[in-house]
Amino acid sequence: MASIAVRPAQPRDHDAVTGPWISLTTDYGLADGFVAACHGVLARLAPAARVIDVTHLIPPADVRRGAAVLAQTVPYLPVGVHVAVVDPGVGSARRGVGLATPGGFLVGPDNGLLPAAAEALGGITAAVELTSPEWLAPQVSRTFHGRDVFAPVAARLALGAPLAGAGPAVDPDTLVRLPVPVLRRTAEGFAAEVLTVDHFGNVQLAAPAELLNGLPTRVRVAGRAAVRGRTFADVPAGDLVAYADSAGLVAVAVHAGRAVDLLGVRPGDVLPVTGG
Q1: Which structural domain range is residue 60 located in?
Q2: 39 falls within a domain
Q3: Pick from 134, 150, 174: which residue ends a domain?
Q4: Which residues belong to any copy of the S-adenosyl-l-methionine hydroxide adenosyltransferase N-terminal domain (predicted)?
Q5: Each residue of 53-100: pLDDT tens digit?
Q6: What angle do CA 139, 143, 144 make, to 5 degrees?
Q7: 143 and 95: one domain?
């Protein structure tokens, strides 16, 4: 399977006249001042920009979860600059990068966090390493590149500065990419890797929703009885339902419950989905 990102977004003419937009997706949490510091840098450098907080509750250092949330969200945001920071390698030799796409810019660490979102925005048209000193904070902390590298770069891009000014060009083929999640067809259905688990405990699989179409109404997920349905209320409270989620992927939920707890799974596990 080449990609699990949602379909590419296309730039829309009206987005260009609504002013600059910046989005933030991080694992910083809300208990400290990290998010506020990033907002402050953006406000000082690009006061006209409007900032959308996608989430700051990505599990710490969970790059795969951050990549999935980012890729499934950016197509629905205004064309702008999308900053993502889930960065366990901050301060190491990993690169900071800026990516151009038909649907906007992406800024963050080169650790696999950005490529799926870039594909969702139409594909990478240019990439640079963020090294130009004049684009960064006067003093760059080794442990807070969100504030000192990524936010300053995003502000300048939002104001119209060309990406090429942020640093030397990077071959997009050299960017770090996450392993392709497991998806295989079986005689009885398919087996797919758990891609993410959302706030409600719904389990999203790395499988396109069309794979459900060839299965009967009664199915089994990891050996448990389930129904192939359209929404949660298609089954009684406490029962499993397999459905096409809002990202166009197969997901499993429990009506009025948490599928992740019932199935006892976590991201990276591979679940079989078969005719019941």
Answers
A1: 13-174
A2: yes
A3: 174
A4: 22-164
A5: 999 999 999 999 999 999 999 999 999 999 999 999 999 999 999 999
A6: 65
A7: yes
Burial bucket for residue 177 (CB in 10 Å: 0-12, 13-18, 19+): middle
- Write down the residue that tokens 């009506």 correspond to: 255
117 phi and psi, to 5 degrees?
Answer: -65, -40
User: What's the DSSP call for residue 213?
Assistant: G
pLDDT at 28 over 90: yes
Same-domain status, 164 and 202:
no
Q: Going by C-beta distance under 8 Å and a sequence separation of 6 or more, which residues neighbour residue 80?
A: 15, 20, 21, 22, 23, 104, 105, 158
Helix/strand/coil for 8: coil
Asked whether 183 and 206 are in contact (CB, 8 A), the reply is yes
Do residues 138 and 95 both lie within one domain? yes
CATH of the domain at 214: 2.40.30.90
Q: Which strand (E) or helix (H) includes residue 117?
A: helix 115-120
Q: What is the pTM of this model?
A: 0.91
Q: Report if residue 6 sits inside a domain.
A: no
d(CA 256, CA 262): 12
The pLDDT tens digits of the residues spanning 116-137 come to 999 999 999 999 999 999 999 9
- Residue whose token pair is 């080169």: 110
Overall number of domains in the chain: 2
Q: 25 and 48 share a domain? A: yes
Residue 198's contacts (CB-CB under 8 Å, 6 or more residues apart) are 204
C-alpha distances in Å from residue 10, one per residue of 69, 100, 106, 172: 19, 13, 15, 20
CATH code where residue 20 lies:
3.40.50.10790
Same domain? For 163 and 188 the reply is: no
